[in-house]
Design brief:
It is built from 16 helices and two strands. It is 67% helix and 1% strand. The longest helix has 46 residues, at 307-352. By secondary structure, the chain is an all-alpha fold. It is elongated, with a radius of gyration of 30 Å. Strands 1-2 form a two-stranded antiparallel ribbon. Helix 6 packs antiparallel against helix 7 (141-182) and helix 8 (193-230) packs antiparallel against helix 13. It is found in: Cell membrane. It comes from Cardiocondyla obscurior. The chain crosses the membrane at residues 113-135, 147-170, 191-210, 264-287, 334-352, 364-385. GO terms for molecular function: sweet taste receptor activity. Its main location: membrane.
Amino acid sequence: MEINGNNGNTIDAPYLRLKTAEKPRRSFMINVQSPKTNLRHSRFDPMKTDVVVPEMLASVVPPSDTFNPSTDSLHAAMRPIIVLAQCFSMLPVCGINKPDASYLRFTWRNPKILYTAIAFLGVLLMSIANVWRLLTSGINSTKMTTFVFYATALVTAIMFIRLAMQWPCLARTWEKLEREFTSRHRRISKTTLATRFKIVTTVVMLLALVEHGAAMLSAYISALECAKYRGETDIIGIYFQSQFPQVFTKLPYSLWKGILVETINILSTFSWNFVDLFLILISIALADQFRQLNSRLFAIRGKAMPEWWWAEARNDYNHLATLTRRVDNHISSIVLLSFATDLYFICIQLLFSFNPIRGAVRKIYFCFSFGFLLARTTAVSLYAASIHDESRLPAPILYSVSGSSYGHEVTRFLTQVTTDNISLTGMKFFSVTRSLVLTVAGTIVTYELVLVQFNSVQQVDQSNITNACESYFGFT
């Protein structure tokens, strides 16, 4: 195609387009407020390789498939975990098996509440029995540890009832944000959130089951030795009486009472493990939301983006920050309880380690129990700290934004990323960051030195068989 110029010469059309494209456009990306106005008024230089045309933005970070709340939401991922928790009298929320979070509700007129109340009453009676034992027979490390264990189960039950009252609203808010993000963020993992939740839950609960089974086996061996020493045949009776002296020194023993007390002990053990598991799962879900946003930001690194794009990204980040604070308001007391009890049990188990442990089974149990406790505490710390880590990752991308697209929205975004502390907290006493792991480790060493110095460790003569008639670790 040829075009006649003013001087009568013939100009090739492609050459004309090239000359036109070479003209500088100094108004590049100015006053661009939305995708629509940007499409009408913005002009991009096709010779620049770092410019992304608005029509191509969707292809830079392909969105996920259509959001399906019955499979893709936090509600769907938490469904089997909450069902498992309800089997052990925790999180009595209705509508768990419904397709989305809009069906969730909490009501006091619910059979699950009755089951929770019965379990709560059992743990309360065990706590009272432990207090009475401390007042009447004196205080030592084993008795105190048993009291802390059941007191922790009691407080945990109260906290999760409160959380159950707030869970429907929180789940709906989370699902609304997930639905909105699906249209802009692509899924970064081939493994769904529900699958990851199931894997983590299976690992933690299996280890907890092995740990509790080893505790029961260790106590049963002690009961065998005690029965042999006393010349008795009721090994089960000796097992229950030696494991729960706070109950059977005040009440006459019978088998049904022993089974009932053991059931309460199992419920308390599950709640102790479930606290850490719940925090790990919530941390995974929150960090995953930040990770999707960061993936979208990394995809445009080095490219000039319009002002409206940065405004949209900053708005998404702000929504995630608001969601994190809302979640923290609901579970910060649980975070504090988790770190306090784990720290206490780590210190007390280190203190018990100075006592000679008789028998290979007891040694294996003690090592496994202590290792599992350390691993669980470390996992909670690192997974919860990953939220803070992911919230800081946009900073390097924002620092590398080119001058042509560095505008007011980028400045606001960068300010929020670098100054806002987005993390889970322990009732605002501390923020769970990666450095907290070293702080907790230092605290354990400090308190252990204090315990060793001010608590005389009783070195028991292992040749005395009557030790087999005493419970070794009162929190199992």
